Amino acid sequence: MEKVKITKFMPTIKQMKDMVIKEVTYLEKHTNSRFTVTGRRIPKWGTWVNNWRSTPYIYKWSKEEEAILPKHYVDRCRDFMTRDQIPIHWRPNPARYRTDEDSGERIPVVNLPVPIVFPKECNLGLWGGEGIIFGYYKKDIPKKRLKLGTYPRLWRPYLQKKVLYSEILDRWMSINITPRTLHLVDESFGLDFYILKTHEVDLCSRLAMTLKREMLLALVRKSLYPDDPLKREKVYNKYKSFIIPEEEAEWIGLSGDDAVEKAKKLQAEQNPPQPLKNLYLVELLRRLQLDNPKVGIVSKVNPFKSKDGETTSR
């Protein structure tokens, strides 16, 4: 283990690479910086997770399943699994270098995100990218002479149930949201604009992606407000800049298992199974034609149709 004398933990580039790639632990026994940094690579095909980012759900599939999935769906999944979230619980330092307090040496600045945990419950609401943070209480308190022990602390987002309205879906919904989500909805001038504008990484919710798929399908199919044509045209013109092809909108927000199941059904519809007796009969006629050229007339006639033009099966 490399010995480093510091007053404020800031890993170097070499330490960052060792912690990410080789899963080396630095300053494990240091009282002021007691934590372990390791890699979060998942040894499964079709999964991409950043080393410093947690997700409430992941996309995973096998090599054979990826071959039948559409390219636009795979690209969206890769973008979600590899893209960094907008900083919410921390603020990155824009400077490239910092000056060490003891030696005065210029050290490269490494913006290390705060580890965030996203539970499965955030898929049932709109948390606005917020999650759970684990930490410790502050030890040094000016009013007390004695130092306190190391006590863990937990920061949880403040959830409140609000009723939101979707103009595209014409639906009122009771959803668990955070004050940040409510502020983002007001900033975007409505729930529909917030869902359609925000990237999947920042939404970080299955419910939000389900609503986005329903909104996009309603816009591209023009199924909104069936009893009010004037209202339909007004809402359609308001959100028509977000319209994408229906073939892509149907795959928005689908989980890996649902997407693979849907791809298998589409493949089965496009390539229906053929009876082996028909294939064997065609192969037999081809062989007879090669052996005797006079039988070539029989091969030009469809052996599966009768004189009346109806298809027959034996």
Task: Walk me through this protein's architecture.
This protein is 37% helix and 9% strand. The chain is mainly α and 314 residues long. Strands 1-2 form a two-stranded antiparallel ribbon. It has a two-stranded antiparallel ribbon with strand order 3-4. A two-stranded antiparallel sheet has the order 5-6. A hairpin with a 6-residue loop joins β1 and β2 (106-108). α4 (179-187) crosses α5. It is extended. Mean pLDDT is 79; it is low at 1-9, 27-43 and 297-301.
Keywords:
mainly alpha, 314 residues, two-stranded antiparallel ribbon, single chain, disordered N terminus
Quick structural overview:
Keywords: Ribonucleoprotein, Ribosomal protein. With 314 residues, this protein is mostly helical.
The helix/strand series, from N terminus to C terminus, equals: HHHEEEEEEHHHHHHHHH
Shape, per Cα inertia axes: extended
Strand content: 5-15%
Low-confidence stretches: 1-9, 27-43, 297-301
The N- to C-terminal Cα distance equals 78 Å
Q: How is the main sheet built?
A: 2 strands, antiparallel
The tally of beta strands, per DSSP, is 6
What helical percentage do the residues reach? 25-40%
Quick check: average pLDDT? 79
Sequence of strands across the biggest β-sheet: 1-2
Secondary-structure content class: mainly alpha
Computed over alpha carbons, the radius of gyration is 30 Å
Number of helical regions? 12
What's the layout of helices and strands?
Elements: H1 13-22, H2 63-68, H3 71-82, E1 97-99, E2 106-108, E3 133-136, E4 152-155, E5 160-166, E6 171-177, H4 179-187, H5 191-197, H6 200-203, H7 206-221, H8 229-239, H9 246-249, H10 256-270, H11 276-291, H12 296-300
Antiparallel strand pairs: 1-2, 3-4, 5-6
Helix pairs in contact: 4-5
